[in-house]
Design goal:
A hairpin with a 2-residue loop joins strand 6 and strand 7. The chain contains 6 helices and 7 strands; from the N terminus they run E-H-H-H-E-E-H-E-H-E-H-E-E. It is 36% helix and 32% strand.
């Protein structure tokens, strides 16, 4: 199966919501309830939310397109961090948030996530970012390892509300390439 990484279009909103329903639960701590995960999907990762993200000029969504089937996505937000814990932790400015970065489990371990990360770093650089930051659940060891291999380092922590619970995230950042490749 061949794939390309491209910028998402309005036609991708439904497939992105479907992909998010598969990938988001994998990033949640084992203690997360099905109700909290479902509420987050409905309140943040629905087709209508993706339509809004795709219409926002400060948001870029990159997708892994495998012959018309979306197998991964990243969502970048080119706005200053509003969370005081994040704003206080960041050391590289201006910084773009890597709000979401997910790959379908069938593509784990195949290099697709590294390709998506590379494209996301280039998109952040093209948007004028000197740095890129993300929040990752402190219990998500697989993602933390991946981000570390991708050049991110932990610079702080923040809280994240998942339905009725408050989760704890590490804030990680790295510099972006100075010019798109």
């Amino acid at each position: 199966m061949t794939h390309t990484i491209r910028t998402a279009t309005a036609d991708d909103a439904g497939p992105l919501a479907d992909l998010a329903a598969v990938t988001f639960p994998l990033a949640c701590p084992p203690s997360s309830s099905a109700e909290d995960i479902a509420a987050h999907l409905a309140n943040t990762l629905s087709e209508s939310h993706f339509r809004g993200y795709l219409a926002d000029p400060d948001i870029t969504i990159m997708v892994i397109d495998a012959d018309g089937d979306l197998r991964g996505y990243s969502l970048l937000v080119n706005r200053p961090a509003t969370d005081p814990d994040v704003a206080g932790a960041l050391t590289i400015r201006p910084s773009v948030e890597l709000s979401k970065c997910y790959v379908h489990p069938e593509h784990h371990g195949l290099g697709a996530a590294a390709e998506l990360m590379h494209a996301s770093l280039q998109a952040a650089a093209s948007a004028g970012g000197a740095g890129i930051w993300l929040g990752v659940n402190s219990q998500n060891a697989r993602a933390i390892r991946f981000y570390g291999k991708s050049g991110f380092r932990t610079v702080g922590s923040k809280s994240f509300r998942l339905g009725s619970t408050v989760e704890h995230d590490f804030v990680m950042e790295r510099a972006v390439p100075s010019s798109p490749a």
